[in-house]
Amino acid sequence: MKRKREQVDMVPSEIKSAIDELSTMAVNLKTGGGATAAAADDQTTQVSIKPFLALCNLLIQVLDKIGPTMSVLRQDIHHNIQRLEKFHDSDPSIYWDVVEIIKKEFKEGKAKKGPSCSKAFVWLTRSLDFTLALLQLLVKDFGRNLEQAVEESYNITLKPWHGWISSAAYKVALKLVPDSNTLVKILKLKDEDDETLKKDMQSLIDLLVPLLEQNKDIARAYGLDGLKCV
Q1: Which residue ranges does the record assign to the Glycolipid transfer protein domain (predicted)?
Q2: CA 109, 166, 170: angle at the middle one, nearest 5?
Q3: 79 FRET partner, CA 20 to 30 A, in 2, 87, 88, 211?
């Protein structure tokens, strides 16, 4: 029984797991620097699909712990992950790189049509951008009102791309977010203090920034950065 309890205590938090995934991605991180679609063809930019989707799944785990509050965001993330996973599984030797998938859809004229993988990539990036904005606010002040922090993060990352239906759904969700102390407890490891958690969150922020900048460059290169939903 004691050994089992020790094993549970050794399970890393979502924050530490996300740091591990991003550290893996950072090894191969190559910034395209605002490249065009033609320049992107030379493989100067790559996004390994497995660690990227693992990172997105960690965000789902956090949302699950919070409860049904952010179910709209959770559902969107889950569907977009599934779309990319399905395409990857069709030929893992070629589609291990998200850019290869986007390139294929772009050449076939499918990137902006229907439920494409290109759209899934854009919305997963925006969801991670929302997460980054929220982490940055919380690191500055754990005690701040979480509803206000979530709303501010939403307004600068997701709201510009949402129509009135999506905005209305998120507005309802904002009223149900837990308090800051509850979220901090969710993110902590057992017996971890606030300062250690803050350091981990800052490490995650530092790793997320270059990844998201690269992803936004990819979206711009293929004309996907202006996509909106209803």
Answers
A1: 47-187
A2: 140
A3: 211
Look up residue 4 and give its amino acid: K
Of the candidates 15, 45, 10, which has an alpha carbon nearest to the alpha carbon of residue 194? 15
pLDDT tens per residue across span 166-211: 888 877 777 777 787 877 777 887 777 888 888 998 999 999 999 9
Tokens 């979480």, located at residue: 146
What CA–CA distance (Å, rounded) separates 138 from 135? 5
| pTM, two decimal places | 0.85
d(C-alpha 16, C-alpha 187), whole Å: 10
Asked whether the beta carbons of 121 and 102 are under 8 A apart, the reply is yes
